[in-house]
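can u do me a favor
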């Protein structure tokens, strides 16, 4: 069996392992680009949380569509690089093309990789849709399709245009 034939199995196991709909997102404390602390409790909700990496080809393909949704809906998209080599400078440079995304960066308390581990993320990109109570409504391992993401935002209580 080739390594590519195992990919669906890995994705299924990853989805089974990750936070599930109905579960509260874990506590974290990361910094926004201005140095303000963002926690699970303080983030604006409903929201979308995307775990990504600068080298990830699926992330590169997906981000323009996600950014359009962020622009159209006004829903906050928090993006967290789970890649240890993605420094603050790399993340902020990458995010210049996506001004509606709010990148979250390492703080004195947490590193993005630690937060990804609490969400039980096993790859890139992983997208979580969170409702006003901070509970996961939907998660996507890999690309999040536009219609599915908009449906999840409606389930999260988002007031879409």
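np, heres the sequence
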């Amino acid at each position: 069996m080739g390594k590519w034939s195992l990919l669906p199995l890995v994705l299924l196991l990853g989805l089974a392992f990750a936070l599930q709909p109905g579960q509260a997102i874990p506590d974290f404390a990361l910094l926004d680009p201005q140095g303000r602390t963002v926690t699970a409790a303080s983030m604006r909700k409903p929201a979308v949380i995307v775990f990504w990496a600068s080298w990830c080809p699926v992330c590169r393909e997906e981000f323009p569509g996600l950014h359009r949704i962020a622009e159209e809906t006004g829903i906050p998209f928090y993006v967290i690089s789970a890649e240890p080599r993605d420094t603050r400078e790399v993340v902020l440079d990458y995010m210049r093309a996506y001004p509606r995304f709010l990148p979250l960066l390492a703080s004195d308390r947490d590193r993005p990789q630690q937060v990804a581990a609490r969400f039980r993320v096993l790859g890139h990109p992983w997208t979580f849709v969170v409702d006003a109570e901070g509970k996961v409504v939907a998660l996507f391992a890999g690309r999040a399709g536009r219609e599915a993401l908009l449906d999840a935002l409606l389930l999260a209580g988002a007031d879409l245009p």
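Strands lie at 29-31, 37-39, 47-52, 77-81, 101-103, 126-130, 136-141. hope that helps!!
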